UniProtKB/TrEMBL annotation, chains A, B:
<dbReference type="GO" id="GO:0016787">
    <property type="term" value="F:hydrolase activity"/>
</dbReference>
<dbReference type="InterPro" id="IPR015797">
    <property type="entry name" value="NUDIX_hydrolase-like_dom_sf"/>
</dbReference>
<feature type="domain" description="NrtR DNA-binding winged helix">
    <location>
        <begin position="167"/>
        <end position="226"/>
    </location>
</feature>
<dbReference type="Pfam" id="PF00293">
    <property type="entry name" value="NUDIX"/>
</dbReference>
<dbReference type="InterPro" id="IPR054105">
    <property type="entry name" value="WHD_NrtR"/>
</dbReference>
<dbReference type="InterPro" id="IPR036388">
    <property type="entry name" value="WH-like_DNA-bd_sf"/>
</dbReference>
<dbReference type="InterPro" id="IPR000086">
    <property type="entry name" value="NUDIX_hydrolase_dom"/>
</dbReference>
<dbReference type="InterPro" id="IPR036390">
    <property type="entry name" value="WH_DNA-bd_sf"/>
</dbReference>
<feature type="domain" description="Nudix hydrolase">
    <location>
        <begin position="11"/>
        <end position="150"/>
    </location>
</feature>
<protein>
    <submittedName>
        <fullName>NUDIX hydrolase</fullName>
    </submittedName>
</protein>
<dbReference type="Pfam" id="PF21906">
    <property type="entry name" value="WHD_NrtR"/>
</dbReference>
<keyword id="KW-0378">Hydrolase</keyword>
Amino acid sequence: MNPEKILNLSVDCVVFGYDVNTKSLNVLLIKRYLETNNNVLVDDYVLTGYHVYKHETLDETATRVLRELTGLTNQYKKQFKAFGNPNRLTSEKDLPWIENEKFNSRTITVAYYFLLKTEDVSLTNNKYSAAWFPINKLPDLGFDHKEIIQEAYEDLKVKCLSEPIIFKLLPDKFTINDVQDLYESILGIEIDNRNFRRKLINKKYIIALDEKQVGVSKRPAQLYMFSKDIYDKIFEKNYLISI
Amino acid sequence: MNPEKILNLSVDCVVFGYDVNTKSLNVLLIKRYLETNNNVLVDDYVLTGYHVYKHETLDETATRVLRELTGLTNQYKKQFKAFGNPNRLTSEKDLPWIENEKFNSRTITVAYYFLLKTEDVSLTNNKYSAAWFPINKLPDLGFDHKEIIQEAYEDLKVKCLSEPIIFKLLPDKFTINDVQDLYESILGIEIDNRNFRRKLINKKYIIALDEKQVGVSKRPAQLYMFSKDIYDKIFEKNYLISI
DNA sequence: ACAAAAGTGTTTCATTTACACCCATGT
DNA sequence: ACATGGGTGTAAATGAAACACTTTTGT
């Protein structure tokens, strides 16, 4: 017997992945397609999500949804907002879909975002036809998912300035320039390399490895890692008022 | 005919109020009391909250809940987290209450906090027996409301450092020391008065009025106001990475 | 030898921190 | 006159911002 769904409550997941090579911050989306008599009713993308089961916490639902799509567990996740507008699933495109899927059209969704590495996800033969899209080149999106992604992105932008979550998006071994590129991708700004470099290297929790890049057709860069242990140890709450 | 409730979805409101005189950051709570045959089953406090109506957005529910309790509208509010643990309403104290109120015991609540001035709320003859409690001296609380308040408070602590929401808790005319006292109350820290004073007075959006305190039995202090217009005009996003 | 990205130092400016006494007013 | 909280200034230290060239490597 299947677990029982809560019919008017779902979790939607904005899965962020960073591709070090293309320097692109991406969002993982799944295909939504519906036709009747060769008549295409719905053809766009949506976030991955599912109803909450009766026995589950919201966090567990989010974890399950990610695992179902990618096979991954133990990824950084954050619940960032609930969306409950009564009209959020009532656009012209959404109605046939909802009818087909027997959704409750007044469904509240609790939205999470995940941070992971694009390279950790294998999409070949993905049963949801999942695909990565650069955050700035999103396809046509169903429901209110464009808004949800936008709010996740805003939260990420703020949060990456004050917490070391950036490293969740990078490989375990990275270069200083990787970090800079990622900040530039997320924030849409340019950063001075010398200042950034000095700042980062001076952090005790940024550890230079005995290793350099291999297989690059240029001067190979020094590799570093992030030590969460050291970060936690030296973390000090800062009460700087900047209004 | 009454609007139709969504039975498994509610909004709970953490109403923060600051009392300038006692320098106390308070939370507004309502009484929860139930007895049968002179047998007290439930006697504690809870947050104010209510089910979401079918036609309402979540924000509208929160606004309605606050208005119902205090008569106030147009107060600062923020949705900060959804709570959906399947066991969140199943403690020994909560069960008789839920039975009595015909709640769905698997109710998800979307939590908001409000910031307002204690003095704006009149509690005489309040039909919910509402009362203010200092954030550090909360009474026995029902459901998971202690956790909800704690999370609201954490969010407030972070947010007041980077956004001028502190002024939502103060009267329109305040002294520099009022602001300092409030920061100290919220953050639980001590601040150097000279440094704080200089910092604040140098902000263009902190405007010295042609007025001083009246009715105080000491040297009356200069009154100031906060100009949101000027704040918005000179606001600049800051991309300082502090990890 | 050349292309391409990695890596490096110094100066200026702004902000934060530390710190102790006099002042104005009401009683 | 006195008690009470209001109000003030300076110097040192830290952190951010601006800025251009050399080095290393693979091809």
